[in-house]
Structures
1.
Amino acid sequence: MKKILLPTDFSDNAQKAIDYALYLFEKEACILYLMHAYYSAPSASGTKMTAKEDLKQLAQTLEANNNRKHRFETILETDSVINLVNRTVIDKGVDYVFMGTKGSSALREKFIGGNTTDVLKYLVACPVVTVPDGYDYDLPEEIVFATDFKHTFKNHELAPLITLAKLWNSKLNVVHIHTEKELNDDQKQNKELLKGLLKPIKSKFKEITLEDTIAGTLRNFERENPEIGMAALLRTKHGYFQKLLREPVVRNMAFQTEVPLLVLPMVG
């Protein structure tokens, strides 16, 4: 049974991320944790009691959809989003976190500047799927996985990606962006290793030319291939994920990509 964490601030974009998770996992037995980290500030709307009632109402509404494979639990605490997400992932053994990329208007600046980006940067132990504002979700016919082949892949690192690809028989496009003249021996070895690990799913490997930025290059690749329904990156100490942070932003991908972004944790 999959365990999925769904942080919400009750905004439309948070609801979109919840709906997308339910849609993606509609065939799977899941426990879905609806989580709200209460943030007390003069600009915050409502009280903790209001938030508790809103969370209860949300769970009842989702349960009324009557997917018997899905069970909902609510989590409400006064804490930062990143702290509560981290603790819940560990305590509940969460398999995926789904988040929107924009929050409610009262907390919008703080949410964009902090919560989703913090989770992407600092949540080490769990895959995160961010769903862009305004995304009209559909099945991921194809998934693009960007890598520089500088990392020696482990099966556990790729397992969440393979699981998602298997859900809807998605094809995986493994994309290498040219930032060097040719692959060195280690990169070639890692590429062959990756091919072996991806045998359980359909995959193809592509080379694309670096444009202005890595984020921009990947966005353009998505636009040129409309069958792509998800992008994926592995959170490594070096590689595309860190380069996006230095561009500066994981924010460039998380808030401007036109499809959901899956960020995989690095094991070990």
Note: The two ends are 25 Å apart (CA to CA).
2.
Amino acid sequence: MKKSYLLGSFIVITLFFSFFLSLPDSKLHLVFCDVGQGDAAYVRTPSNQDLLIDAGPNDKVLDCLGKNMPFYDRTIDVVLLSHPEKDHYSGLLSVIDRYTVKYIVIPAVTNEDQGYQKLLEKIKEKKIPVKNLYSGDKFFLGKVELDILWPGKEWVADNLSTSLSDSSTSLRTGLKVLGLATKNTDLNYFSQYLQLRYGSFDALFPGDGDSRIQPEVMEEVSLPDVDILKFPHHGSKYGVTDAFMDKVKPELTVISVGKNPWGHPTKEALDILQNRSIKYLRTDQRGNIEVVSDGTGYNINNK
């Protein structure tokens, strides 16, 4: 009886401290999740709202969320999928099963593979509201501002094989398009460029929108000078152009990468960073990487 009482007391005390430690601290917590060869980033805002940017190639993202979300929080306010490639969307199947998702920001373009079609059906089945956002659109999570820099709606329309308004060829939820075919075979070009801002701190998430689309992006968009850049395309040799890096001038670049047959991150990618004395961190070496900002500076923690 005494042992049971002590065990029960220990559990209560543990839960109390876990709750206390998860209370808002007026800081932004940005975690680059170690999901292997893929992308996933979790954001906890100063007002305790949750944003998930991509979800990696498998359910490893659940481990990252479990370590960084309060144990009592089973709701993700916004999920943003940069583009419909397996190493970015696959983990969402598990996330949607485990958590309540209030909104999902998803590209209008589709991927015909079975896994992505299953994801679209699951979104529809669970009646998750879908938002299609384009260059110039923004949304807020408390004091955190999220700006979509790319692609523009006209560019997307020009690169789809069907009209954005053609409901007969798309899967829809509400009034939003969930999956239209594309004339452009490279889905990476559709990657949403997302700028996150909290006070004077900002970070750029370009998905896999690499050097092959960056000249076009830079013609259409005034890219910001940022504190942190999520390196495009996992450190591919096509990841960035010199002009792109000279424009965004990050203090820190995070490379989301795992074991892969392409040699990511490549020498070409690392040389561009080293030639500019830009600090970089890799999830395959550091695991989950947490950036904490008070809206001015930031600190880096290993998770």
Note: The chain has one domain: 23-302.
3.
Amino acid sequence: MAALMGYYRLMRPTNMFICGFSVLCGGIIGGRPFTLLSEHIISSDSGEIPLRIARIVLAALSASIILASGNVLNDIMDVQTDRINAPKRPIPSGLVSVRAAAIFAFILSICGIFLAILISPNAVAVALTAVFLLAVYDIKLKGVPLAGNIIVSALGGLAFIYGGIAGDCLPESMLPAIFAFLYHLGREIIKDAADIRGDENAGIKTIATVHGVPAACRLASFILIILTVIVALPSITGYFGVMYTVYIALGVCPVLLYAAASLLSYQSESHLRNISLILKIDMPLGVVAVLVGFQGW
């Protein structure tokens, strides 16, 4: 039972859920999302689930599983730093061996790609790209300052594009993809700054280890401020309606600005991890704001 729990934790279910939710949103935003869901899922007379919804659900499952494979590979490559930063993780704690974790990551990747085959050739291309980028990041680019952060952030945006491909609404999915890219980029830099002790011990080069934690925090703060401005633009230009404005004014922009300001003050590891956690908790609200915007409210 303990070993099974170790595999479960390696996949990082919370991140899988966020990824799958992002894909789902990317797939339904093109057709007034809440109306689409109510007509085809909630309504008792909707009959069989339409093919479009089935493709979106498959894409969400595929992306979540592929992300899980990347999470497992990440833990394999991070075993030395995790002995310091996270000694209770499944591999450094001995719950799962490196060999077993590698086999598990391979199986997850194959499963994710197989599900993409059931969607479309374009979906397969995205799935293969995601698997490739995750492998390149974990094996080669994780220790390259900023390059690794950009790869992870691009994958965060790709989740919405994956959903857009499955739901035949690729153009609409580009806007949340841009939001997601900037959000993940800022948060990844913060996470690296929080992990500076383990990264320095393992010789991993990040913005924080090369240029210092204050420099990394200033960069992350700048990115979050840029994201705040970009998030507000659909409201300012009238692209989205009043409800989108309410959501971002009350639940999104204040959190982004708080995080940006906090990064310029006290920068202990626990302080940085708290900022990262706050941003992670606030992300679903940002996704809901986008859904409300495309609903036309």
Note: The two ends are 48 Å apart (CA to CA).
4.
Amino acid sequence: MANSRLIKRRIKSAQNIAKITKAMEMVSASKMRRAQEQAQASQPYAHKLLEILQTIATSTDPKLHPLLEDHPNGQPVLIIVSTDRGLLGPLNTNLFKACLEFEKKHAEFTTIVLGRKAQEFAVRMGWNITASFLELPEKIGFNDIVPLAQMVRDGFLGKEFSSVHVLHMEFINTLTQESKVTELLPLRQSDFALATREAESISEESEEGTSSEYIFEPGAKEILDWLLPYYVEVEIYQILLDARASEHSARMIAMQNASKNAGEVVESLKLEYNKTRQAAITQELIEITTTKENS
């Protein structure tokens, strides 16, 4: 009977765990939908800004703005975008594997960490941490990323940073999130790739004999002075929205799997409990029969 009571306690514990993980799954699903909608809502704006920059950058001299120039004397900086909390399955593990791949390609670099998990990893690896941004709001606003954007711009323009890379999780869909390294600075003309539809449009216009030259007002330099720093902010903002959607998706899937596993454990324990109980009943019947025969 003592063994049966122990199994019943284990069943109760597994059922409680299943309730908790199911609740966390539902909360993460709700947050994931909001984060995904927020990320998707900003994508058209970011894409149009990229098209405008592509048009200007490919039509002007890259020396017009320092954000387009290489700074070989500075130090590379890696911005690691992780989460503050766990229970995400392999999400952060995959992110940190990509960090180690980055380390193989860069002998020396400094880091800026976003998220407590990234901070713990950088400290464990003994990497230099220039700045830490922890406990960002659940619903990230554009103003939340301005201090980070200002820091990397000032560091690059002051030639303290030779390049700025952002390592983050890219949201593909609910089941798939992939680690990605985005070179934020310097802004290279090759990075401003035209969308397929725009390339086809330009090709059609060229065939029709229309001019592809542009006149900028007030001027290309003045436009770049405002547009390039703003583009850095928009790019960081979009990266953080993708990372937040990836976080909630990974947590939802992890909690879904945990609930499923807890259910399987409960079923296995119930089977074990029934076998133990049946064995106890059989033993009692044997003892009763034996006692009756001996009396």
Note: The mean pLDDT is 83.
